[in-house]
Amino acid sequence: MGGGDVCSTAGVQRQVSFALADCNNFYVSCERVFNPALSGKPVVVLSSNDGCVISRSEEAKAAGITMGQPLFKARDLINKHGIVVLSSNYALYGSMSRRVMEVLAGFRVGREVYSIDEAFLELPEMDEPAAVALCAEMRSRVLQWTGIPISIGIGETKTLAKVANRLVKKTAAEAGVVSLLEEKRRDGALAAFPVGDVWGVGHGIRKALEVAGVTTAAQLRDVDRFWMKSEFGIKGLALVLELNGQVCHRLGTASQERKEIIVTRTFGKRLNGFEQLAPAFTEFARKGAERLRATRLTARSLTAFIVMDRFQPDYQGGSSVELELEVATADAESLVYLAREALRKLPLEGREYKKGGLVLGKLSPANVVQESLFSIDLPEKGPSQSQKFKLASEALSAVNERYGVKTQRGTPASEDLWEQRREYMSPRYTTQWNELPVAR
Fold this sequence. Notes:
Layout: E1 18-23, H1 26-34, E2 43-46, E3 53-56, H2 58-62, H3 71-81, E4 84-86, H4 90-105, E5 110-115, E6 118-122, H5 128-146, E7 150-155, H6 158-171, E8 177-179, H7 183-191, H8 203-211, H9 217-221, H10 225-243, H11 254-257, E9 261-271, H12 274-294, E10 297-307, E11 318-329, H13 332-344, E12 353-361, E13 364-365, H14 385-403
Parallel strand pairs: 2-4, 7-8
Antiparallel strand pairs: 1-6, 1-7, 2-3, 5-6, 9-12, 10-11, 10-12, 10-13
Helix pairs in contact: 4-5, 12-13
């Protein structure tokens, strides 16, 4: 069976297809940019509410700290090795991510931002030495302009680029770049690469493959294609074809894939009642509105959900409620109103909740919103009420973007009982005026 049934064979003859740029220990690297005293020291960054380790420096890894390890279980190692502990600073990490991605975009290659610290790149046609040199230049420029070290893997497909990227840290390549374009090197790498580490192989597929005797990426590449498709469908066949150099996954865009926007938070303490939960849902709605406007989208549905702490003796799970909007919107204050109305419909009395959030759905481009008959602007009567809300919301967003989050609020501020625990928080060097680093 040929690969053309599910995948494009265009580009198979090219010596270069894709590269994956991945920031090294990204959260730790961001902290070190603005605090050079952390360089060379063991450092860990914690998850929300200072719960578990989600980023480690190489020194912390060598000390025995594992990914996802709860803070309380790591205390002995932290004290023994003098490991620096930091709370997650997502405002800083998001800002630094944008800077890294902008530098990569400056090379005018195809680019897909895959996650906060990863981007796929489609390289122009060139031989392998030129491709390695180009990626080494990218790595050097990102480090010079942002202070963030990155590793780059090169392959004929996105899956092979992923494999190459995983090998960069293991081989300690001088240029921080590994290429699998050369056949002999690629064959050796795939023969030693665990099948469970292949991009797209989840836990269920891995177990089934291992039962069938497929334990390495090389064995997966050579598996019978008819069997793979019958067992795992088109996605399973695409895995095999990509490992054989046939492009099945082209560069994508977030706008094509985004179906909903989710804003969620684990609270710093258990909350109960409308008065305690309302400030959190107010903030969720504002953040959701900001993300809608940033992606030039509007939403026609809003779902509010709350979840109890599963360690509570009276644990009863969670609840949710969905509201439909008459007109799709990205207006912050309209979404705040709806979020609070949805919250009132949830079972709040007599229960304590540990987590909550909003889901904004039925998204559509902002320039094709279907207005209600009664919300259309009439020139003789001036802007409609919805238009006034929109203008006010945009003005508030502009003020907060320039002077810092929560500088101005559309509704009265209240004590943020819901805020996460961040006992080891570093300054938001790039997004808050009053936290900018000061030269002495």
